[in-house]
Automatic annotation (TrEMBL):
Pathway: Amino-acid biosynthesis; L-isoleucine biosynthesis; L-isoleucine from 2-oxobutanoate: step 4/4; Amino-acid biosynthesis; L-valine biosynthesis; L-valine from pyruvate: step 4/4; Amino-acid biosynthesis; L-leucine biosynthesis; L-leucine from 3-methyl-2-oxobutanoate: step 4/4. It catalyses: L-leucine + 2-oxoglutarate = 4-methyl-2-oxopentanoate + L-glutamate; L-isoleucine + 2-oxoglutarate = (S)-3-methyl-2-oxopentanoate + L-glutamate; L-valine + 2-oxoglutarate = 3-methyl-2-oxobutanoate + L-glutamate. It comes from the Bacteria. Its cofactor is pyridoxal 5'-phosphate. It comes from Staphylococcus gallinarum. Acts on leucine, isoleucine and valine. Keywords: Amino-acid biosynthesis, Aminotransferase, Branched-chain amino acid biosynthesis, Pyridoxal phosphate, Transferase. InterPro entries: Aminotrans_IV (IPR001544), Aminotrans_IV_CS (IPR018300), Aminotransferase-like (IPR036038), B_amino_transII (IPR005786), BCAT-like_C (IPR043132), BCAT-like_N (IPR043131), BCAT_family (IPR033939). This is Branched-chain-amino-acid aminotransferase. Its EC number is 2.6.1.42.
Length: 358
């Protein structure tokens, strides 16, 4: 039995939101996990504290130089039990991101234990409706108040819990419209595109706004050198079905190694599909569409789950994929993936991790 971590109780519990109006990331539970770092003590004071505002120095380095990384994962409830989905993958990746920003790594097992205890306290907040889950947002940021450009000597980790529904607002598996960005780039090799750092998302916003102004839901990024090869959507990795085969851009150093991406590749292979991880040019996709070889496109991400793409706009061309309908392979992968996550299907790989009652 693991030791219980410190728990600071709040006076009044919040009212829970209407389950039919969850949206994504709008509501937060009563408590959060908190962990502090300083140069003398290392990581210390792991505790569950009331969710609420925190005090931060106006000179905190994160506010000036952006030393911040985050993660996203989910918890599901079924038959009275709450499970986390592949949480160790997220904690492995948070350390990868921390290392890239020269921030101190964290004991992954301790973090997982802290998360389990937090979710145990908040198990009543895990929604059970179709397509709903408890979205979990761990993040770490630099707190030292000093304006010199060097790594901070102090940091804070927080984990927030947010009961959520579908990321795009509509029903699950509603095809999205994607704008292929040909002006701005998201990342270059040697940069931070492979890490989940806050700045990657800040850098994507202008293109996202421009795309939204033209009626598109998301931006598909091309590589930062030739602007020729497809990389990722920013909130999702991307997959194409070409001649019945799944094709996805290979992890080349500027693409985020998505955990849903990894799971879908593993799942697709088990279901008997061929999967290719390789460079995919935008020209190849347009040609494959014109010849009829490109039959489905979908994105994968923790928040977005599996999201079919119905339209892709590149320069002056808009291609419509599978009649703007969810394709057969996308549907099958979605059902299998969500079935395992939500506990409706068996989990032979042990991806679900039970949250014990402490
Ligand atoms: C996630 O899928 O968890 C993400 O991090 C994407 C987005 C909400 C930032």
């Amino acid at each position: 039995m693991s030791e219980k971590i410190k728990f600071v109780q709040r006076e009044n519990l919040k009212e829970k939101p209407d389950p039919s109006d969850l949206g994504f990331g709008k509501y937060f539970t009563d408590y959060m996990l908190s962990f502090d770092y300083d140069i003398d003590q290392g990581w210390h004071d792991l505790q569950i504290v009331p969710y609420g505002p925190i005090e931060i120095s106006p000179a905190a380095q994160v506010l000036h130089y952006g030393q911040a990384v985050f993660e996203g994962l989910k918890a599901y409830k079924h038959e009275g039990e709450v499970d986390l989905f592949r949480p160790s993958e997220n904690f492995k990746r948070i350390n990868h991101s921390l290392a890239r920003l020269d921030m101190p790594e964290i004991d992954e097992a301790l973090l997982l234990e802290g998360l389990k205890q937090l979710v145990d306290v908040e198990r009543d907040w895990v929604p059970e409706g179709e397509g709903q889950s408890l979205y979990i947002r761990p993040f770490v940021f630099a707190t030292e108040g000093i304006l010199g450009v060097r790594p901070s000597y102090s940091y804070k980790l927080l984990i927030l819990l947010s009961p959520s529904g579908s990321y795009y607002g509509g029903a699950s598996l509603q095809p999205t419209k994607i704008y292929v960005e040909d002006e701005y780039v998201r990342a270059v090799r040697g940069g931070v595109g492979h890490a989940k750092v806050a700045g990657n998302y800040a850098a994507s916003l202008l293109a996202q706004t421009n795309a939204a102004d033209q009626g598109y839901d998301q931006v598909l990024w091309l590589d930062g050198v030739e602007q020729k090869y497809v990389e990722e959507v920013g909130s999702m990795n991307i997959f194409f079905v070409e001649n019945g085969k799944l094709v996805t851009p290979e992890l080349n150093g500027s693409i985020l190694p998505g955990i849903t991406r990894k799971t879908i590749i593993e799942l697709a292979k088990k279901l008997g599909y061929e999967v290719e991880e390789r460079r995919v040019s935008i020209d190849e996709l347009i040609e494959a569409h014109n010849s009829g070889a490109l039959t489905e496109v979908f994105g994968t991400g923790t928040a977005a789950v599996i999201s079919p793409v119905g339209k892709l706009k590149y320069e002056d061309t808009e291609i419509v994929i599978n009649n703007n309908e969810t394709g057969e392979i996308t549907q099958k992968l979605y059902e299998n993936y969500i079935g395992i996550q939500s506990g409706k299907l068996d989990d032979p790989e042990g991806w679900r991790v039970v949250v014990p009652r402490y």
